[in-house]
Amino acid sequence: MSSRSLNKVQLIGNLTRDPELRYTPTGAAVCTIGLATNRQWTTEAGEKKEETEFHRVVAWNKLAELCSQLLVKGRKIYVEGRLRTNQWQGQDGSQRTTTEVVIEDMIILDSKRPVGEGAPTEAGVQSIPAETKKEEAPIEAPTTPAEPIVNEQINPDDIPF
């Protein structure tokens, strides 16, 4: 019987740079993102401290293409994925190691938009560019008249709550 293990990462942070989209020789999309997360705490002496951690985040295939289209430096996002460590030999012959977060899910948490791509509405929700809207059939009014409302007595025992 094999033992179970878990490799799961969840991060909320801000992009440190614009995403970089590349394609492998086989045609798979790869998007690299820089993400910064902050941690704040107070020392026993009452001094406030803050620490920033920088993460290398990688998305593959369709998620990579979406990240490159929707994300820009400064956006706040949630990502979920797994840790992967890569080792290679540098040009100077030394052994190099890097750890990255390979994401499987990404959620945009703010309503920022790059300049010129549509302004937020009064409610803070972005308008969807016309090319992404689906064609919807017009809603037609029903052809049969609605039934008249009959004034009837309501029994309090019939109310489910």
Structure summary:
The chain is mainly beta. The protein has one helix at residues 61-70; strands at residues 9-15, 20-23, 29-42, 48-60, 76-89, 95-108.
Outline the fold blueprint:
Layout: E1 9-15, E2 20-23, E3 29-42, E4 48-60, H1 61-70, E5 76-89, E6 95-108
Parallel strand pairs: 4-6
Antiparallel strand pairs: 1-3, 1-5, 2-3, 3-4, 5-6
Radius of gyration using CA atoms only? 25 Å
- Spatial strand order of the main sheet: 1-3-4-6-5
By helix and strand content, what is the structural category? mainly beta
Q: DSSP helix count?
A: 1
Question: How many strands, which pairing sense, and closed or not: the largest β-sheet?
Answer: 5 strands, mixed, barrel
Q: Low-confidence stretches at least 5 residues in length (pLDDT < 50)?
A: 116-149
The fraction of residues assigned to DSSP E strands is 35-45%
Q: Secondary-structure element sequence? A: EEEEHEE
Q: Any idea what the CATH architecture is?
A: Beta Barrel
The overall strand count is 6
* Overall average residue pLDDT: 79
CA distance, first residue to last residue = 50 Å
CATH top level is: Mainly Beta
3D shape: extended
Number of domains: 1
Percent helix, as a range, is under 10%
CATH homologous superfamily (4th level) name = Nucleic acid-binding proteins
Account of the 3D structure:
The chain is mainly β and 161 residues long. It has one domain: Nucleic acid-binding proteins (OB fold (Dihydrolipoamide Acetyltransferase, E2P), Beta Barrel), CATH 2.40.50. Helix content is 6%, strand content 41%. A five-stranded mixed barrel has the order 1-3-4-6-5. A hairpin with a 5-residue loop joins strand 5 and strand 6 (95-108). The chain is extended, with a radius of gyration of 25 Å. The chain starts with 8 loop residues before the first strand and ends in a 53-residue tail after the last strand. The relative contact order is 0.16.
